[in-house]
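Researcher: Here's my situation. A collaborator sent me these components and asked whether they could plausibly form a single complex. I don't have experimental data yet, so a predicted model of the whole assembly would be a useful starting point for our discussion.
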Amino acid sequence: MIALAGPNLPHELLAAAGKHGGAIALGLDQPTPRAQQWLESKFAPHAFALVESWAAGAYDHLDAVLFSRADDTSQRLYYYLCELQRRGLLAGPRPLIFDVGKIPRTSSRDLTVAAVRRLAGELGVGDAALEAAIVAGNRARAGQPGGSPSGPVCLLHGTPPPDRRLHQVIEAAGFAASGLTMEELWLSPGPAVAEGTGDPAAALGTQLHARQQGARSFADPAAFIRQSVETAGASAVVLWRIEEDEAQTWQFPAEQRALAELGLPTLVLTRTDWQARDGAPAAIAEFLAGVAR
Amino acid sequence: MTTAANTAPPASVNQRSRKMLACTAEATAYQKAFGQELRRRVVEDREPYAIVQADTPHELFHAMDIPIVTNQWWSAYISAKQLSTRYFDKLVEAGYPANSCKYCSLGLACSVANESETAPWGGLPTPTVMVARLTCDCIQQVFGQWANLLGSEFFPMEAPAWTDKDPQWFAHSRDEWRRVYQPDRIAHMVAEMQDLIALLENRTGRKFDEGKFHHLMEQINVQEGYIWEAAQAIGKARPCPVSIAEQMPNTMIPQWHRGSDWAVAHAKKFRDEVLERIATGQGTSGNEKLRLMWIGAGVWHDPGFYQALEESLGAVFVWSMYMPFAGPAYIRELQGSPMEALASRVASMNETLHLPPWMNGWMVAEAQRCGIDACVLLLPPDNRLSQSGTKLTALALEDAGVPVLMIDADMVDAKIWDHDRMVGMVADFLREKGLAQ
């Protein structure tokens, strides 16, 4: 099986190969002494848990782990893990990288399509199997439960949290929580992939190249947060970014301006702890207590 | 070992470096005159120009005679005028995060501050295009927002995955570059460069001259060949004839102008001066006992740091990446394909300096080539890209018998740099390792 360790990865391709191993299990609460020897401080926090688990043999049952170039931590981990294996400091599964391009330009789309074809070749997946997986994936998307929650909604925007601990705080305050966790982001299939094109690798590559979410997205941040508010039907927003988020945190001024224009109650929490050990839950609870439902 | 820098205001004054080579003064004078000329072309004459990252294909702009302002050079220029703290504070006031990457964002900070009375050149006018390779998550945000602020267009370039990993890349980069840098990566970079040329031709009306470009690439090989030759000689020479404080400008200033007649002539002059000093036994210090390696960008605001321990401890910084990098990063047998050769250069520059196995493979080989006794490694706290690869490199160096001191400091932000404290840290480290009394 192949586990996923990043966003914007080709789920349909792994499914077609019968090797989709889901998101890699991280074990976030463990101490990470070995990982800290090898990783610098600006890696996203989950990287330390991943490398520590890798060193402990937690992934030895996997054939491979697929990293993504759509996220700096993910792509950098690929190189680090390859090197640690080369030097005999680690064993475990084979690190792979999916070379997704996000620049809105034909050459970047072509680069992504080539990455799909390359991985399909490695996994022995032909066009017919990939097309069938695309059709099945689209059916699964269509079958997702939809509809709006009955109560008020709070959008949790910014850094994807490790799990639903912040969502639970929002729900305890009487709001439905909208916003993906990191694992949900990694497993998110995105919009439907074009069917019946005669070139399923190109169809999948085109969808991956165009996806709007993630650190390397070229989506306009103000438009994206407005769209997220609208889609969720949110009446309040928590804009939450962690200390190590050095990429999308640049979008703060644009996001804040967009939210001010919308006139929504907003709580901004910056340079926070990813595991929310820093008072963020209390701040969110206090904020939402003051928001009219 | 990791040591934190003090975040209190600096207690000591940063130091200028001591220069011994005639060509160093010539290089800095040329650069100063170039800065004035660039300002005239860009600010007064309002020629089309570009703001570009250091690891982008400057050669295309040179071949089209389009002036460029390199972000890293501009950052260093602002920093040298002691304006970094002021502009970073303005960035925070504007709602940007205080933990942002400092090296890439000082130019943006200057534009956000929008202070024509303090900004170098009164601030930059609108460039025709801004170009950056996406080697981290941060840079597309910085350049995208900077381009919006200046009313310009951002031309991002991919940094494709590199799966054919040769730790000995530097031994084969000159003649086996197609294999070393991966054919598909080279092809992609060529496609992007062709798009960029088309954009530049369209926006500026200037034409890309293939003959001129081919000649430029040949001249760059000549230029970097001189630098490479001098670097090889410095590695073997005892004592070290030239401090890194002089290696840097004599490599980097010609490199900003790579392939020009002046750059080629200057590189030759520098090589000749280095060889002459070696032949006559002249060292940068009369007291060389320890040979140190500096890993990281230059500390532009305190160049005297590098020479501070030469007399007291005989500790001489003989190695920084800029000069020895010239050979493997720049020299390419053109093999009738200058655009592909350039693509191989651009598609690897950042990766070989910041990612395993290229970074550590090269640094260990260089430490061995130059007889390094100890290494000082910069670990900027808020810059993932500059941090990248440093711990694995430190481990590899220590495995090879080279002790490493890692300093948490930023090469641009003077706020967290204290000359005396930093010099003291290095001295303590050398004593702790039993390398100095």
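Model: Some features of this prediction you could bring to your collaborator: Chain A has two domains: 2-139, 151-289. The two ends of chain A are 46 Å apart (CA to CA).
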